[in-house]
Amino acid sequence: MVCSQDNPGDPVTEGRRVLNAEATALKMLSDCLGHDFSDAVGLLSTTNGRIVLTGMGKSGLVGRKIAATFSSTGSPAFFLHPAEASHGDLGMLTRGDVIIALSASGESGELANIISFARRFAIPLVGMTRAPGSTLGRASTILLTLPELPEACPLQLAPTTSTTMMLALGDALAAAMMRARGFTAGRFHDFHPGGQLGHQLLQLHEVMHRGDALPIVTQATLIQAVIVEMTAKRLGCVGIVDDIGHLIGIFTDGDLRRRLEPSLLERPVADVMVLNPRQIGPDAFLADAARMMAEHSIPSIFVTVGGKPVGIVHLHDLLKTGLV
After folding, report:
1. Nearest to residue 169, comparing CAs of 129, 124, 141?
2. What pTM, to 2 d.p., does this model score?
3. C-alpha to C-alpha distance for 248 and 250, rounded to whole angstroms
4. Residue 247 within a domain
5. The pLDDT of residue 164 is above 70
6. Who's near 91: CB < 8 A, 6+ residues apart?
7. Is 285 helix (H, G, I), strand (E, B) or coil?
8. Positive or negative CA dihedral for 106, 111, 112, 114?
9. Residues 157 and 230 in one domain
10. 176 plus 213 within the same structural domain
11. Integer CA distances (angstroms), 72 to 139, 174, 179, 185, 311, in order
């Protein structure tokens, strides 16, 4: 993107002003993080219940996004609308839950019943506000205070800077909780099975060719039999194993074309195989296999356990998932 010179009144200039103001706010927010943030991560990471986000208006919309981020990263969460809470949805709360309430002013009247319910039933309340002396600030078990900064909108009225800080603080909480809980890419895939992201996080044992589909021969196998095996399995290669079943070589259809001569068919594959082929484990992700294939310019890779082949993944398998 080409940056033009600032011109007062120009939309680009105004856009930069807003972005710079919000970037400054995020830097200040980062500098303000301390023991309260650590306490909040500890509380949220160890709760046996759900994390309940709540807030009105734009703060509520941010709360919905934070709840979705928590849920997708291993921390069950949902959004509770303050108005609906006052008309029966307070029954969704249990003693094991933790509430995160968002309000820039800390004085959203609609939060009053949720705050009262939390105090009555000893449900921990994490407040997110820029007014520590507000109703929400005083009632919070743990208070995450936002820097006191004006909104970035020209009238300094529409929630802009405050909601940006809330959203970023929610991301920071989710990321810190992932580390605290040891959340892995495998668990991430459990919550994201669809789309390209889900395909990247498929483990190789879920997609590899195995059993009778595995093109394997011994080192004494003659090339004419290797061609039959390679043609039958239709993966463009065979793996060569030693007497105890360890993968020691590979022979591809490209190797066949490059070495083709009258005497080749009667030679054992051990004479012409490529030694020490690339290998990968069955718990690796499809994205790992794709990266290895690209780095070494190979169309397939054997999946091994203890050096013994248990499967193979071909470039065509990546094409089917849309990964390449």
Report:
1. 129
2. 0.61
3. 7
4. yes
5. yes
6. none
7. strand
8. negative
9. no
10. no
11. 29, 10, 14, 12, 31
